Protein: Transposase
Organism: Holdemanella biformis
Amino acid sequence: MKLNYDRKSKDPTYFIQVGIRNGKKVTTKNVERIGKHSELLKITDDPLEYAKQRVKEYNENIKNSKVEYNITVNFDDKVVNQGNTVSKSTCKNTGYFYLKELYSSLGISDFFDKVCSGRKIAFNPNMINMVLTFSRILDPGSKMHTLKNLTGFYGDFDFSHQDILRFMDILEENYDEYLSHLFESS
């Protein structure tokens, strides 16, 4: 951010501006109007110094409001080849790891562990829910579309279309509890 004003004017207006690059061209946009020189004389004796101070404060606020987000990925983990199409693919999309961090922070895995504790099921409901959620965000499609495109995810996803349908039955039975868990966790 920078200060901009007409230096030749007797009563200049002070603005905070930001430079924006669009291809090879650079353009500036006014972010905030600080005020006219005559208006600022009522507040302070040195309007130019006041305007410079406002720009400095604005830059500090932007610098302090930035959020840093780091995740760790262990690429030494091996994906076990189980003979299905998912295991055969060597080109994996790892961009969903940011979504995976958000997903795990909601504690959805614990919810499904609690809901399915008394059931005898051979599939992982949390894994199916996770894949369906990420797929709906990144590449919207049907449940069958998600199953056919599991090769896009890095990991060991081994479930069938029948498992997805069984999972949907579990989700339907516990739908209100699922929504309340998401609301409380977010």
User: Anything to note?
Assistant: Residues 85-185 form one domain. The mean pLDDT is 83. The first helix runs from residue 37 to 41.
